[in-house]
């Protein structure tokens, strides 16, 4: 999947700042959500 530079940067951002998570759902569909938390194990949407 191609992302614009700001979205790509957010997909690599720390969880504390809000990380963009992209999940493949199959058949060309994806979900996008910003996850906040102290790390990837303790998060909230």
3D architecture notes:
This protein is α+β, with helices and mostly antiparallel strands and 45 residues long. The protein has one domain (5-44). 16% of the residues lie in helices and 49% in strands. The chain has one helix and three strands. It has one helix spanning 5-11, and strands at residues 19-26, 29-39, 42-44. Strand 2 and strand 3 form a beta hairpin. It is flat and about 30 Å long. The mean pLDDT is 88.
Strand and helix layout:
Layout: H1 5-11, E1 19-26, E2 29-39, E3 42-44
Antiparallel strand pairs: 1-2, 2-3
List the secondary-structure elements in sequence, H or E: HEEE
Shape: flat
Q: What is the overall number of helices?
A: 1
Structural class, judged by helices and strands?
A: alpha+beta
- Number of separate domains: 1
Widest beta sheet: strand line-up: 1-2-3
Radius of gyration over all CA atoms, rounded: 11 Å
The count of strands amounts to 3
* SS strand fraction: over 45%
Tell me, rounded to a whole number, the average pLDDT: 88
Low-confidence stretches: none
Largest sheet: 3 strands, antiparallel
| Helix content percent band | 10-25%
- Kindly report how far apart the N and C termini lie: 22 Å
């Amino acid at each position: 999947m191609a992302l614009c530079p700001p979205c790509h940067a957010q997909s690599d951002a720390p969880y504390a700042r809000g990380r963009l998570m992209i999940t493949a759902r199959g058949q060309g569909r994806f979900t996008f959500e910003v996850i906040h938390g102290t790390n990837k194990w303790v998060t909230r949407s």
